[in-house]
Design brief:
eleven-stranded mixed β-sheet; Peroxisomal Thiolase, Chain A, domain 1; alpha/beta; two-stranded antiparallel ribbon; 405 residues
């Protein structure tokens, strides 16, 4: 059986605020961080609400770019996690981070004139500063430079599974003996006009614009799409012996991770949930646990009709007709896309430490056909292991098992 990998630090930023414990208090209270978007004009857009994390650097009409905002949020979460773990820069381990794909956005393109996209790209080609800002992996490189991490940063984009993929990369690097410790993180800031329009055209977003707090409603009959959100999460992972030798407080463990590809459709899961089931089973096998030893599932739970149905069916197939409580904290913070896997693994860790299950809010019309306990209100719960699910567009599925200290 694989040696357990200790978690010694945790950091989090969501629409509910900065800081892991501040977020935990808001989550347990059932607060929603979803509100109307004021960062840019949403006139004519299908969705005008999101889990926004606005920053002091934002200027009227010219908010920070996706790359710059993702960098700021990632730095905030990692700083918190490192401080709790008792580490200072330079950090003697790699940075593994999930981040969104980036491209030059409308405000920047407008500076160069031109009426066509190729013209604008050509005009931007010689702008070194702009190129570096929007280069994929550039934000991760700047984060790595700030914290003095070792080696080239391992930046991954596996859609909504990116944060969980980063945890898996860090876990495997420590197990292979390549490093004694690693930063595993995810940061997301894709909330900008083009992305909002594209997801709207896919009819993936909730259009409950008149009720922001009630818009994200996983597992309900009235669920109508996900709510985009900014955010970041970070975990400091260490070889258990290394953590104990330096006297670190062990908060919990990453016990295992599993992945499985689903090539059924570029956005939809296979109707039989087969890849999702394989993904969860591989995570349990990697952790050396049986389904009966999982006491809580932090669901991918996006609030889209098909995703919630497929995930509930897959969980019942793996765990039986009486699965463990299965909640979606996206009901409060929205869908943080590339950061979701890291944020939700951190939430599982906090749930284990407090022995409390955070709620899935907006459960006034639970879909009875799903057959799962959706945790409509926070409640005490004795358990030793949790499963965090992250299922991305393109069939990029990752599940992570978090264990109690």
């Amino acid at each position: 059986m694989n040696k357990r990998i200790a978690i010694t630090g945790v950091g989090m930023v969501t629409a509910l605020g900065f800081g892991a414990e501040a977020n935990w208090a808001a989550l347990v209270a059932g607060r929603s961080g979803i509100r109307r978007i004021t960062r840019f004009d949403t006139t004519g857009m299908r969705a005008s609400i999101a889990g926004c994390v606005d920053l002091p650097e934002d200027q009227p009409g010219l908010p920070l770019s996706v790359s710059a905002r993702a960098q700021r949020l990632g730095e905030a979460a990692i700083s918190e996690a490192l401080a709790q773990a008792g580490h200072a820069a330079p950090f003697d381990g790699p940075l593994c981070i999930g981040m969104p794909p980036v491209e030059i956005e409308w405000p920047q393109r407008a500076r160069f004139g031109g009426t066509t996209y190729p013209d604008q790209i050509a005009a931007a080609a010689n702008q070194t500063e702009l190129y570096e800002e929007f280069l994929f992996g550039g934000a991760a490189t700047r984060i790595a430079e700030r914290f003095g991490t070792r080696g080239v940063p391992q930046v991954v984009t596996t859609a909504c599974a990116s944060g969980a993929s980063a945890i898996q990369l860090a876990l495997e690097a420590i197990r292979r003996g390549e490093t004694k410790m690693a930063i595993a993180a995810g940061s997301e800031a894709s909330l900008q006009p083009e992305t909002l329009i594209r997801f709207g055209l896919l009819q993936a977003l909730s259009t409950r614009n008149d009720d922001p707090a009630g818009a994200s409603r996983p597992f309900t009959l009235s669920r109508d799409g996900f709510v985009m959100a900014d955010g970041a999460g970070a975990l400091i992972l260490e070889d258990e012996d290394h953590a104990r030798a330096r006297g670190a407080t062990i908060l919990g463990y990453v016990l295992g991770a599993g992945e499985a590809a689903d090539t059924f459709h570029r956005t939809r899961s296979a109707p039989d949930g087969s890849a999702i089931i394989r993904c969860m089973q591989r995570a349990l096998d990697d952790a050396g646990l049986t389904p009966a030893e999982i006491g809580y599932v932090n669901a991918h739970g996006t609030s889209t009709p098909e995703n919630d149905k497929m995930e509930a069916m897959a969980v019942r197939a793996l765990f039986g007709e009486a699965p463990p409580p299965m909640g979606s904290t996206k009901s409060m913070i929205g869908h943080t896309l590339s950061a979701a896997g890291a944020i939700e693994a951190a939430i599982c860790l906090l749930a284990l430490r407090h022995q409390v299950l955070p709620p899935t809010i907006n459960q006034s019309d639970v879909d009875p056909d799903l057959g799962v306990d959706t945790i409509p209100v926070a409640r005490p719960h004795a358990f030793r292991a949790a499963l965090s699910n992250s299922f991305g567009f393109g069939g990029q599925n990752v599940a992570v098992v978090i264990g109690a200290a």
